[in-house]
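Schema walkthrough. Field components (list of strings):
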Amino acid sequence: MILESILAGLVGGALGALWGLGGGFILVPILTLLLGLPLSTAVPASLVGVIATAVGGSAMFIREGHTDRPLAVRAAGISMAFALVGARLAVRIPSSALEIAFALLLIAVVAKMIRPPANHSSETHISSPWLASGLFAGAGLIAGMLGVGGGVLNVPALHLALRRPMITAVATSTLIVAFTAAAGAAAYAALGHVDWSLAAGCATGAFVGGRIGAFVSPRAPLRLVRKTFVVVLFYVAIEMLVRGFNLPWWR
Amino acid sequence: MSNKNAARLWLGLGTASLLLLWVAVLFRPAWTDWAKVLFTGAPFVAAAIDLWPRWRTDPWSAVAALGLCVLFCIAWII
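Field assembly_structure (string):
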C-alpha cells in the first residue's frame, strides 16, 4: 500500500499544482475510488498529504515575496479552529453523507471553473473583514471534514473581501492551507484515525508531485488543462454521488 | 527574517520532519509518536521562528503565531 499511496500522492500533488489546487480534491477520490479505501481513512491521509504540498508551495511563494505571512497567521487562527470542529464532526457523520458533501463541493468548484473569469475591478471588491472571517471559517470546516485544503474559499476571502492582489491571495492561501491541514491532521491523529504509512506515502508523493506540477504548469496548454480539470472533477463528483446515495443501477 | 531565509526555514523543516516521519513509520523507534507530532507541527514551529523576532515592530503577528502553536497543542490534546 505504501507504493500505491506514493503514486496517489504524486498524481494528486502534480494535478493539484497543475490545476492550481491543493491536491486534496484529487487525492481523496484516488484513495477512495481507485484504491477502494473508506473516506474515514482517505480524509486524514489526504490532510497529511496537503500539509506537504502546502509547505513546499509556501516555501516557493515566500522566496518570491508573494506571501503576506502576518495576515496568514491571523486568518489561520479562524480556519484552524473550524478545522478542529470539522474533524470532530466528520468522525460522527456517516460516510455516505460525507461523500455527498464532497460531491457537492466538487460540483461547486466545477461550476466556478466553467463560469468565465469575472473582471474584478475595485468596485466589485467588498472589503469586509467579517465576510472574510466567515469564508476562512468555512474553509477550515470543509478542510477538517473532507480532507481538502480549503483554498477554494481562502482565495476569494483574500482577493475579494480583503482586497489583496491575486498572486498574494493565492500565496497567502497556500500558507493558511498548511496550518489548517496540519490542525485537521493533528485532530484526526489524536483520535487515532490516521494510517501513518499511507499518510507518509501520500505526503512524499504530494511533495514531489507538487513540484513537478508547478514546473509543468507554466508550459502546459491552459485551455486543455482547464477542460480536462472540469471533465475529471465532474466525473469524480458523479462517482461520489453514486457512492453516497448507494445507487445500484449505475454499476 | 528575509524572504529567502524564511523559505529555507519552511522547506528545511518540512523536509526534515517528512524524513523523520518515514524513519518512524519504517522502523518504529521509541520516538515514533513525537515524529508524528513534529510532522504536523512543522508549519507552526516555522511560523513561530519566522514571526517571533517581529514582536517589537508587529506584536500582533508574533502573538498570533504563538496562538497558532497553542491551537495546535489543543488539537493534539483534546
